């Protein structure tokens, strides 16, 4: 049986209307509802199913974030993970971290926790980078399979289906491996109260980035954040001739 | 978006075959002594609204029939004014010709109060949909009566505000209609009733007089509070054209718990505990019984996040500090789980889950419509006798009905008890009424907690109000609308 590590991230709730800060330095996060990144939730569900199928013996959930990220970790524990690792950084540091820095931390955690499989969501809905899973695999020098639609673990390998533009691609990869999940692989379970209560007793290890040998000094400088331009109103024209002349004026034809 | 569309589609599928009988025929009513609408009258009225009207009974089916499809009028003319002045001109003219008028907003009322009974002219407020002013500091919004609740919420959200009321019809119901029926809803528990939240108003009397009691400040004790006449009187004393409402702060922290409970006694206990432990953050406390869960699964394929149980309770919290709120909620849930009040439950981690679980409560009315015909009752019953009414009705009706369900704002002692049959049955109707109202009256409850009297409950008004109180109502009606042209056949019992 394998040990699975699964990464979870606390992000602004997907239903919230994002507002840009007046000074253009970022988006408003204070007093805004946050929850677990939807793809991370799917990754946790996939990990828990591996345990239910008796393929995994233990699931370690890990997160990198401020103290509020502890809630996200607790949700993962309530869904069925066995213990947690919380890498403490403050919100400002988290906002400035790049996928490369995150990947280095994730790789180190996979090593220290002796994971045989590392699961993640395909991307986080705030940054939308979609790079962490691939970078982590490269750092670990492990095989990777991203955007998973299905996962079948076969001992020292796994058969996966990946969602790609043209449809589904089936691969077989050796394990240990880094896997990232896409939307349709499963429907995450709800954390029920008895499990939420049990989760409070599960162990969470507090870790500093320095313990993982990673420097969190910013390497990326965000110059400006702005809302997309407001879509200009359309114009209704009387007849086809007017349409043609307007298109010509606009240089479209 | 997708969910709302499918809700409309599913509803139309079940109700499109049911064209109700004309109210006047079904209840053998006699038309009041009103003037008849001549072609000249019609033309003049349409000119008053710059052509924004609809003519012909066939074109007006959607406006002559209510949402529940239990009443049907025969109006030939619908007008859509855009300003208070137009409303005034319409009423002045109708008053002079003794023509009856029905004020209509979103037509989502559940007691047949928003549609004509005979050929009353429909004055529809849909085009009076401007939000005139939002004051982010005082939290007051001034808006025309035709503003839809959901749209008001969208605009208010930009200023971190929200309307103090919330109900399932929010996508269609309008402010004027909400105020004229003193609509309650899911959050009355926390934010109070419209009677307290409406600060000012502009309304038009039956003879076209515009009554300006507009005020946007919280405190104004200057003389008799005239606007209260128009709140809850269901369009029978005047037509509201504009109102100022005290909004609530949009909470940054919203939590939702869906809990399974074994017996109604546990629902009661859970409510006391919630009030004590959650205190100021409690914003909604709703229940649905097992037969509701069965109905939701059968008719809408909606399933709860936990296994079915005898009762389900939805608890919502609103606050400004998510850490504080979640801590309180968690401690509360742990304690009610440990002492056995609650057998299972879930907490919604994100807004999508919260929205989905709310549907289990908010789409109950729609879900029942799929059975065919719904006998809908909305009563206030003291909590110690609350669920007894459901068991009594079930026993009384037995196999004659498809379903008898109970759900609602248990936190406000407000029970929604609904009975369904495949098609209207006079036998079932007579088994239910007046028995259900008399039962409620005997426990000193209210025969209509929030839906109002409308057309459907006029003859039962005396079961919740004394003869003297009703006499006072008639006095007021005669003083404000002596010709009885505003929404006739509604609210007050027909003499």
From TrEMBL, chain A:
The Electron transfer flavoprotein alpha/beta-subunit N-terminal domain, residue ranges: 24-216
Keyword terms: Electron transport, Mitochondrion, Transport
Keyword Transport: yes
Domain of life: Eukaryota
Pfam families, alphabetized: ETF
InterPro entries: ETF_a/b_N, ETF_b, ETF_beta_N, Rossmann-like_a/b/a_fold
Compartments (UniProt record): Mitochondrion matrix
Main function: The electron transfer flavoprotein serves as a specific electron acceptor for several dehydrogenases, including five acyl-CoA dehydrogenases, glutaryl-CoA and sarcosine dehydrogenase. It transfers the electrons to the main mitochondrial respiratory chain via ETF-ubiquinone oxidoreductase (ETF dehydrogenase).
Subunit structure: Heterodimer of an alpha and a beta subunit.
Family listed: Belongs to the ETF beta-subunit/FixA family.
Name this protein carries in UniProt: Electron transfer flavoprotein subunit beta
Lineage of the species this protein comes from: Eukaryota, Metazoa, Chordata, Tunicata, Appendicularia
TrEMBL record, chain B:
GO function terms (MF aspect): (R)-2-hydroxyglutarate dehydrogenase activity; FAD binding
Record keywords, A-Z: FAD, Flavoprotein, Oxidoreductase
Enzyme Commission identifier(s): 1.1.99.39
Source organism of this protein record: Oikopleura dioica (Tunicate)
Superkingdom in the source lineage: Eukaryota
Listed GO CC annotations: mitochondrion
Protein name: D-2-hydroxyglutarate dehydrogenase, mitochondrial
Role, per record: Catalyzes the oxidation of D-2-hydroxyglutarate (D-2-HG) to alpha-ketoglutarate. Also catalyzes the oxidation of other D-2-hydroxyacids, such as D-malate (D-MAL) and D-lactate (D-LAC). Exhibits high activities towards D-2-HG and D-MAL but a very weak activity towards D-LAC.
Cofactor(s) the protein needs: FAD
């Amino acid at each position: 049986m394998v040990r699975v590590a699964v990464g979870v991230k606390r992000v602004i709730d997907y239903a919230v209307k994002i507002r840009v800060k007046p000074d253009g330095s970022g988006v408003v996060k204070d007093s805004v509802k946050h929850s677990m990144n939807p793809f991370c939730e799917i990754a946790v569900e996939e990990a828990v199913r591996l345990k239910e199928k008796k393929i995994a013996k233990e699931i370690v959930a890990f997160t990198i974030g401020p103290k509020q990220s502890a809630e996200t970790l607790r949700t993962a524990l309530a869904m069925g993970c066995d213990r947690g690792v919380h890498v403490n950084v403050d919100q400002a540091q988290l906002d400035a971290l790049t996928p490369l820095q995150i990947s280095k931390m994730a790789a180190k955690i996979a090593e220290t926790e002796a994971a045989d499989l590392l699961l993640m969501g395909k991307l986080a809905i705030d940054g939308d980078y979609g790079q962490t899973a691939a970078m982590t695999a490269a750092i670990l020098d492990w095989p990777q399979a991203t955007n998973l639609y299905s996962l079948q673990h076969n001992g020292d390998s796994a058969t996966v289906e990946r969602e790609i533009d043209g449809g589904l691609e089936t691969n077989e990869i050796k394990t240990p491996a880094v896997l990232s999940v896409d939307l349709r692989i499963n429907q995450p379970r709800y954390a029920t109260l008895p499990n939420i209560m049990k989760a409070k007793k599960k162990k969470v290890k507090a870790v500093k980035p320095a313990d993982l040998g990673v420097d969190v000094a910013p390497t990326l400088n965000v110059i400006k954040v702005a809302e997309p331009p407001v879509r200009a109103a359309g114009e209704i024209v009387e007849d086809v001739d007017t349409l043609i002349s307007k298109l010509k004026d606009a240089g479209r034809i | 978006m997708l969910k709302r569309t499918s809700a409309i589609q599913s509803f139309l599928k079940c109700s499109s075959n049911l064209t109700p009988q004309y109210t006047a025929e079904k209840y053998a009513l006699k038309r009041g002594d009103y003037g008849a609408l001549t072609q000249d009258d019609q033309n003049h009225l349409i000119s008053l609204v710059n052509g924004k009207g609809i003519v012909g009974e066939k074109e007006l089916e959607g406006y002559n029939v209510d949402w529940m499809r239990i009443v049907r009028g025969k109006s030939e003319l619908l007008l859509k004014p855009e300003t208070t002045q137009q409303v005034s001109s319409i009423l002045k003219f109708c008053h002079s010709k003794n023509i009856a008028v029905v004020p209509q907003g979103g037509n989502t009322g559940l007691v047949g109060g928003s549609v004509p009974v005979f050929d009353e002219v429909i004055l529809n407020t849909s085009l009076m949909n401007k939000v005139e002013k939002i004051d982010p500091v005082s939290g007051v919004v001034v808006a025309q009566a035709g503003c839809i609740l959901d749209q008001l919420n969208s605009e208010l959200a930009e200023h971190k505000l929200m309307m103090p009321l919330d109900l399932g019809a929010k996508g269609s119901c309008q402010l004027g209609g909400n105020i004229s029926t003193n609509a309650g809803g899911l959050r009355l528990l926390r934010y109070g009733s419209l009677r307290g939240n409406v600060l000012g108003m502009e309304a038009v009397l039956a003879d076209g007089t515009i009554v300006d009691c507009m005020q946007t400040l919280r405190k104004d004790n200057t003389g008799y509070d005239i606007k209260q006449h128009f709140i809850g009187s269901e369009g029978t004393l005047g037509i509201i054209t504009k109102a100022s409402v005290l909004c609530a702060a949009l909470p940054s922290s919203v939590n939702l718990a869906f809990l399974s409970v074994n017996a109604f006694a546990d629902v009661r206990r859970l409510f006391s505990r919630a009030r004590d432990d959650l205190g100021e953050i409690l914003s909604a406390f709703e229940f649905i019984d097992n037969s509701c869960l069965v109905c939701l699964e059968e008719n809408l394929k909606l399933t709860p996040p936990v296994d079915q149980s005898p009762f389900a309770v939805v608890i919502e919290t609103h606050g400004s500090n998510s850490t504080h709120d979640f801590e309180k909620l968690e401690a509360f849930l742990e304690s009610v789980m440990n002492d056995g009040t609650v057998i299972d439950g879930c907490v919604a981690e994100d807004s999508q889950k919260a929205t989905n679980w709310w549907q289990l409560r908010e789409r109950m009315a729609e879900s029942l419509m799929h059975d065919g015909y719904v006998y809908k009752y909305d009563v206030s019953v003291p909590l110690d006798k609350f669920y007894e009414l459901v068991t009594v009705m079930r026993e009384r009706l037995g196999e004659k009905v498809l379903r008898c369900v109970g759900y609602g704002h248990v936190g406000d002692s407000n029970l929604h008890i609904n009975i369904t049959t495949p098609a209207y049955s006079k036998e079932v109707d007579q088994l239910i009424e007046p028995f259900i109202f008399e039962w409620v009256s005997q426990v000193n409850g209210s025969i209509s907690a929030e839906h109002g009297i409308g057309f459907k409950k006029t003859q039962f008004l005396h079961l919740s109000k004394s003869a003297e109180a009703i006499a006072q109502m008639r006095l007021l009606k005669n003083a404000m609308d002596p010709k009885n042209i505003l929404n006739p056949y509604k609210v007050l019992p027909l003499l």
